[in-house]
């Protein structure tokens, strides 16, 4: 009888332990990888601190989840391998949601969307084109820069391979410097870094070229940007998405968009996740 009573007590104790809720402070910190040189998505202050649209949004998500989060800056080329190796739990920084990436990794719901654009000096002769065909013909034989490992590089590979001289860069800052110095004729990137560059005093000689290039014309460019995770981080992804639903509803994503871009880049809440 004593043995049975002991077994019963042990069973009840185990059940109580299992029923105890896991508090936010008991959960491990969320390790966030990002590129510190992709303004206005992410950038570094002179003091060496990360800032930008994605950094501010991720901090708000962490607050809503009541989770501690730690950011680490790393060049884009090494981020996905580091994520897959378990160094990070999520990557943020203007990362396009594409079918190719979704085959092996998972995204949060989209929270923003911008096209990609070519940029060039105002006196380049590449300005004022009304269609992609017209701009493509004008680019033939030119030297064009692009950041490696991005959707912009994929666009170059798909649409301009053999037509232009491609120069690859590790980060947006280096790409900007060569464009400003005239070492390349044009450059391709998401529209957001060009907004930042052309809005600065040093970028007053640079112009964003028409037309906008987006998912509607080139489906491989993706339907927006989101946080990138491994497929085994289901619980974190659900919590992140719930926080994004709340932030979209409260207008916080719109507010941060207007702060960093000058207009609203936010996407609508995903009804499959947030409800109607």
From TrEMBL:
Residues in the signal sequence: 1-24
SMART domains to which the protein is assigned, alphabetical: PBPb (SM00062)
The organism's place on the tree of life at top rank: Bacteria
Family matches, as InterPro entries: SBP_3_CS, Solute-binding_3/MltF_N
Pfam families: SBP_bac_3
Localization per Swiss-Prot or TrEMBL: Periplasm
Domain Solute-binding protein family 3/N-terminal: 29-264
Record keywords: Plasmid, Signal
PROSITE patterns attached to this UniProt entry: SBP_BACTERIAL_3
GO CC terms, sorted: periplasmic space
Homology family: Belongs to the bacterial solute-binding protein 3 family.
Protein name: Histidine-binding periplasmic protein
């Amino acid at each position: 009888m004593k043995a049975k009573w002991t077994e019963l007590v042990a069973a009840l104790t185990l059940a109580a332990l299992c029923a105890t809720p896991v508090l936010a402070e008991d959960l491990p910190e969320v390790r966030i990888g990002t590129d510190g040189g992709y303004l206005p998505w992410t950038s570094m202050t002179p003091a060496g601190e990360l800032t930008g649209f994605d950094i501010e949004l991720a901090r708000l998500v962490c607050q809503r989840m009541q989770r501690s989060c730690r950011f680490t800056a790393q060049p884009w080329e090494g981020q996905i391998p580091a994520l897959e190796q378990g160094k990070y739990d999520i990557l943020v920084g203007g990362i396009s949601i594409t079918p190719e990436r979704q085959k092996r990794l998972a995204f949060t719901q989209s929270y923003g969307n911008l096209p990609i654009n070519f940029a060039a000096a105002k006196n380049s002769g590449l300005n004022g084109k009304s269609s992609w065909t017209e701009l493509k013909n004008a680019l033939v034989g030119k030297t064009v820069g692009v950041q490696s490992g991005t959707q912009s590089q994929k666009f170059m590979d798909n649409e301009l391979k053999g037509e232009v001289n491609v120069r690859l860069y590790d980060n947006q800052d280096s790409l900007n410097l060569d464009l400003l110095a005239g070492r390349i004729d044009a450059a391709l990137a998401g529209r957001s870094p060009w907004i930042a560059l052309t809005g600065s005093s040093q970028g007053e000689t640079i112009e964003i070229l028409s037309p906008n290039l987006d998912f509607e014309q080139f489906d491989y460019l993706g339907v927006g940007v989101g946080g990138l995770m491994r497929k085994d981080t289901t619980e974190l992804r659900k919590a992140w998405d719930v926080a994004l639903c709340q932030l979209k509803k409260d207008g916080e994503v719109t507010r941060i968009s207007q702060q960093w871009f000058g207009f609203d880049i936010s996407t609508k809440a995903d009804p499959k996740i947030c409800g109607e």
